[in-house]
Amino acid sequence: MLYSFEQYSAPSWAAMLSNPPAEKVKLAHGTPTPIHPWSPCGYESNQMFVKRDDLTSFDLSGNKVRKLEFLLAQALREKYDSVITIGGIQSNHARSTACCARQLGLDPHLILRSSKDPTEDPSYTGNLLLDRLVGAKIYQVSTGTYARIGSRNLCNQLERQLRAEGKNPYVIPVGGSNVLGAWGYLEAINEIAEQIKSGNGNLPGNFDHIVFACGSGGTATGLALGARLSSLGSKIHAVGVCDSPDYFYNHIEEVSALLGVDFGTIGHPRDWCTVYRGQGLGYAKSTEEEMAFIQRVSMTTGIIVDPVYSGKALYYFSQSSNRIEAGIQDGESILFIHTGGVLGMYDKIDQLTSAEGMVTKMSVVLEE
Asked: Taking the model in full, what pTM does it have?
């Protein structure tokens, strides 16, 4: 299998951080991802821009591929032959890992949490279709088992099982959100700063606010810490789509500590970013209002946001009361990072509203 390692040099502003990776494997073919003006409904009073991290690779890997470039480089360099990761039944991260692993000649093994009977076939819907097309081995667990045993223990159990079978698996945690994976979005901050510098007047001199969805904490860690250490100066807003803000603050602090952060010098995560409760009904559960909003955004801007991550984050701040509470003032600029996940829409077909008048029978006139 052909792949190429690329040397990696950490940004100068990251000098405080310990053990920066020396290389990554090239997986993201759309970087730097474009930033352009955007006008989604509900944001008329702000200067709105979108960074298209949904375009990082051909299989719509979104933000996940930035982390996987560092994680899978380690797996390859250290001669692992397979990869284990874990997530929900429609996990974007699991699907991205499966596709990228297969491209690199590694066998993908996915532990997927399901609210349905884990002994039943999980179907071919959305992300599962790509999981199965690339031949990932899928291990289903119930939500109860997942909650009781935990993602780390489940991965460790499968690792022992595969090692007993003679395999050498590399374990990637939920979302790829560990110390090595954090470098994906530390580097993304560097990318954003370079895009602002070379924007030729098409972008503001700086973005007042950066908004994105937060699901496992890895993207939030990289963006929040990177914004704090660099000269970017943007306020960071992470909209949690699961768990509590305290969970994410603790995760950011834990990973930052492992990166060697001196909290006495730069403060703690609550000084770097704000995390919001944006999950609504719960992880991967959508209200009618959220789905209607996503559909309006698609129909008016041509950009499709998913219902689990970016759609929820965008919906949360489309409400002026939430922007006011977050300190986002009228006229200020917002960079929304679209982290991908469009395949999750296939799991929401029953909730999509019909658009009256959009489908009609064509009148055909035959000319003699």
From this structure: 0.94
The dihedral of CA 236, 237, 240, 243: what is its sign?
positive
Residue 230 · residue 193 · CB < 8 Å:
yes
Strand order in the sheet with 107-114: 137-142, 107-114, 82-88, 169-171
Average of per-residue pLDDT across 154-169: 98
The conformation of residue 12, written as its DSSP 8-state character, comes to G
Give residues with Cβ within 8 angstroms of 92, minimum separation 6.
Answer: 61, 62, 64, 127, 306, 308, 309, 340, 341, 343, 344
Residue-wise pLDDT tens digits, 221-244: 999 999 999 989 999 999 999 999
From first CA to last CA, the distance across the chain in angstroms is 59
Cα 12 to Cα 1, 7, 141, 224, 231, distances in angstroms: 34, 15, 43, 17, 11
- Rounded-to-integer distance, Cα 281 and Cα 298, Å: 22
pLDDT in tens, 3-60: 889 999 999 999 999 999 999 999 988 789 999 999 999 999 999 999 999 998 766 6
Q: Distance between CA atoms of 368 and 356, rounded to whole angstroms?
A: 34
Q: Residue 26: CA atoms inside 13 Å, Cβ hemisphere, count?
A: 10
What is d(CA 309, CA 326) in angstroms, rounded to the nearest whole number? 19
Q: Which helix (H) or strand (E) holds 334?
A: strand 333-338
Nearest residue to 64 (alpha-carbon basis) of 302, 296, 355, 343: 343
Taken in order 64, 218, 302, 28, is the CA torsion positive or negative? negative
Q: What is the chain's length?
A: 368
Pair 340, 63: CB distance under 8 Å: yes
Beta bridge pairs of residue 169: 82
Q: At what angle do helices 64-77 and 92-103 cross, to 10 degrees?
A: 40
Where in the sequence numbering do the catalytic residues fall? 91
- Condensed to tens digits (0 to 9), the pLDDT of residues 182-226 reads 999 999 999 999 999 987 678 999 999 999 999 999 999 999 999
